Amino acid sequence: MQNLLVLGSTGSIGRNTLDIVSRTKEFNVVGLSCKSNIDELSRQIEKFKPKYVCVEDSNLAAVVRERFKDITVFEKEEGLIELVSLESVDFVVNAIVGSAGLSPTYYTLKNSKKLALANKESLVVAGRLLKKIANDNGIEIVPIDSEHSAIYQCLEGKKKEEIEKLILTASGGPFLDKDFTSATVEDALSHPNWDMGKKITIDSATMMNKGFEIIEARWLFDIKSIEVVIHPESIIHSAVEFVDGSIIAQIADHDMRIPIAYALFKPKRVSLPFKISLSDVGKLTFRKPEFGRFPTLEFAFEALRKEEKNLGLILNVADEIAVESFLKEKIKFVDIFRILEISLEKFEDNLPSEIDGIKEMLRDIKVKVLELLKDRFWRS
Ligand code: NAD
Ligand code: MG
Predict the structure, then answer these.
(1) CA 255 from centre of chain
(2) Atom number in ligand 1 closest to CA 198
(3) 35 CA: nearest ligand 1 atom
(4) How many whole angstroms from 105 Cα to the centroid of ligand 1?
(5) All structural domains of the chain
(6) pLDDT tens digits along 18-45
(7) Is this model's pTM higher than 0.70 or not?
């Protein structure tokens, strides 16, 4: 049995990962982590009996230590690094949200552990460095994100020179055919197809999520020829066009447990009960994205064109802060686009090539974006 570590185990992807672990009984859960939801973490500890956990918040880590005297409780980012470095860990699922996932991704690869990656932000912020470490250590980064899992499956056994382009599908989010000028938090959180964490749900409404996925795909597959197609039914999870004009797509119900299971077991397929009937689905539709309404897509393509720059990192930091401010109703929905645009204009720089330089830049840009929001966007 392989020893599995689930980082961000209390979140949407984390809980779905543990559901797959329970159904298949082929992994031993050796470690779990969360930011602050220690009640859910405690239930998971009782069920999966890990030897190690990490809680970001030190005070809450102390509470967990009191509750469970026979396990080791690490804390903060350093605790995550200790977790992924443990000898007994074979396989890491990184389901942390945001740039907090970068260090654990980096040290998982550095320690040559298997990695199933949901935390797309790692690749958005530091794709080149992570791919280099993965290649140096002979580790493959296996995607959990449904689009990238689909592309990964379509590419199996294919040669790079046979690929014409990657086709990323997008549901279009809640504002596909709806005006968002005065959108509320509730409007933006009502995603038509997927039940996800709040951050990625807002990113789906602005389409920044698809922008991040463009950058994620570029690094995962080392291909820059990428098209985004709106597919509101979210049944085709993505596709690959080959040089002969053939397009191969992956079709499944929209349940993240399917790509999670594939990332854990590939190339083996495990039996799961989430089936769809194509005749019940009936109709699948496709259309071009509206780049004018959703400039986030263009921001991502700009980041691909200027790869030596830190545009992915800026987009990620500015978006994290803007989305958090929107959720707290300190800014309007449309302000998110403007904050991203201004941040790209003002904070462009060369991206450092080492982890410590990138982490320092993350902290530095965060301070600058917060100043920008305080000065120009926060409503009192
Ligand atoms: P979520 O908000 O539901 O869960 C996030 C998890 O990360 C929680 O366990 C939380 O405790 C932990 N966390 C948050 N901040 C942290 C910090 N600073 N330090 C340590 N841990 C922290 O998020 P989610 O929807 O499960 O998304 C997780 C990741 O998976 C994101 O990168 C997201 O883009 C990606 N993803 C999610 C989905 C989905 O269906 N939810 C689909 C594709 C990709
Ligand atoms: Mg996705």
Answers:
(1) 15
(2) 2
(3) 11
(4) 13
(5) 2-143 (3.40.50.720), 147-376 (1.10.1740.10)
(6) 999 999 999 999 999 999 999 999 999 9
(7) yes
